[in-house]
Amino acid sequence: MSEAMIQVEVAYATPAAQKIIALRVAAGTSVQACIERSGITQHFPEIDLNEQKVGIWSKACKLDAEPRDGDRIEIYRPLIADPKAVRKRRAEKAKAEGKADKVTGGRPNPRRAKADEESPS
């Protein structure tokens, strides 16, 4: 009796190129084994599974997870900037330029600004 086979895809992308490799593997094959069998590291030698995160359909998983039939295994590149730090810098810049309320951080309320000008300090 032969083993059940499943169809999976292994995907990786850089700003300049992307590659999706479809392959059939035995059911129960780990994510790491699927990546190795796909040969994607021949196209992108910079892939280091010890450092980079992987996922199935945009949901992070471990290398020993078992994909199901039709799953896409994705290899993620490391972030070059912390999203929280970028958002914080953008908010501070908006406050400095008067595009954001200095107290709430939201859009400036023109009625509040007018009331502040009229009230004696």
UniProtKB/TrEMBL annotation:
Any single Pfam family the record assigns to this protein: Ub-RnfH
Leader sequence segment: none
Organism superkingdom: Bacteria
Basic and acidic residues composition bias: residue spans: 93-104
SUPFAM superfamilies, alphabetized: MoaD/ThiS
Ranges where the record places region Disordered: 86-121
PANTHER family: UPF0125 PROTEIN RATB
Protein family membership: Belongs to the UPF0125 (RnfH) family.
NCBIfam families for the chain: PRK01777.1 (NF002490)
HAMAP family found in the cross-reference section: UPF0125_RnfH
Name listed for the protein in its UniProt record: UPF0125 protein CWI84_05475
Species: Idiomarina tyrosinivorans
Lineage, broadest ranks: Bacteria, Pseudomonadati, Pseudomonadota, Gammaproteobacteria, Alteromonadales
